[in-house]
Amino acid sequence: MTGCIIVAAGRGTRFKSRMPKTFFLLKDKPLLQYSLETFSKCEAIDEIVLVVQRRFLKNKYVLNWKKHFPKIKSFVAGGEFREESVLNGLKKCSNNCEVILIHDGARPFLTCNLIKRVEEAALKYGACIPVYPVNGSVKIVRNRKLAGTIYEKDVEIAQTPQGFRRDILEKIFKKYRKELNKFPDESSMCEKYGFPVHTIRGESTNIKITNRQDLKIALALLAEDH
Which of 105, 115, 148, 196 is the residue whose CA sits 20 to 30 A from 219? Predict the structure, then answer.
């Protein structure tokens, strides 16, 4: 079996809203629902655990999702840090889930094809993340002064879902349980542990909604599909 943890418990401070950005309406439905629908329709996924802020566990959208998405196994409250939220979700995944995919709820436009490729690579290699090339050089800036340049050929942007064999996730969380706030994602935990992480090509439309300007891009992508 393959399980999926969708993490949507962030405060979204850069989005500048009292409501979590994943519950912000994009056209006629919450941002989070787009990825939820994709995972629900994808045959590669057997069950879904959704991680949200505790105060949203009885939100009207959450209650509606419980009724309409049978693959949802559980809703769970997030932790103080992202990795704590992932760990909370992992504890709710069925024991017979061999592969676990972890997805950022603020990425609404992933495809089933990407989900399948991540799932297959995670099963084969143990750990896999989708990455996408940077278009141009990346500048390191400290105190508003240029401190270095990372050239295009050396840099690709990490996306989600990231996929892992369950035993690997359990090992890295056990080892770094007291250091969870030091990692941006599970693949970086694997790096420190010394476990190799396979990469596959991500998707240009698999954008992350971070601030309100990103909503304009999201609306444009929706318009292209209709």
Answer: 115
